[in-house]
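Continuing from the previous page...

OK, I double-checked the sequence for Retrotransposon Copia-like N-terminal domain-containing protein against my notes and this is the correct one:
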Amino acid sequence: MGTATVVKPLDGAKGYLRWKESMLLRLHTAGVAYVLSDDPPPPPAAAGVKEDCEAAATARRKWARDDAVCRGHILAALSDRIFPDYVRHGTARAAWEAVARTYDVHAYRVARRMFYDLTFDDGAPLLEQIAHAEALNAAMRFTLSDGDLADTLCQILPQTWPCRPSRAREPAARPCTTSGTSPGSWRRIAFPEKIRSSMASECRGCGEPRHHGCNCMG
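Thanks. Re-ran it with the corrected sequence; updated structure tokens here:
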């Protein structure tokens, strides 16, 4: 028997994303997550074949049981403070969507605010900070294109970092293959990947790989 996924009870918008993903893992593990998207089986036909009617009735009973189990899991993972607001929903899908209407609507706003407040920290791993920026961008309702994202990251890199692109010394651009794409945009689009590639090379300070000179502890 598999170990049940431990889910911290949801008590507000702050922990919603982790709660949502943990709940989906639990519901898939229990084999009942399908009721969140699938409609219940149709009732048996009045003049149908006996075997078909019995199969349809069995399928409906199974769906009803799985829906009750799924609903129970969702409600059990809500804090005492918000539990009364959702217990009135009679199906798992209704309860799930009601919680999402309350908390999912704020997720993209939080991500947008965090993205535009983003700063790079000299003491933190560079790749982690890039991944964080990309995740925040993906969570926003209106995401930046690869080019705009890379350009934004270029602008907020600390001036002291050697990997910060210099406007005075623009690197050679990759040949343009798309109509209307300026040569400089190739640098911006490839910038996060260029940083990742540079991290595979040795640090000039200590000779070790997987970090940049501005993060060197040697």
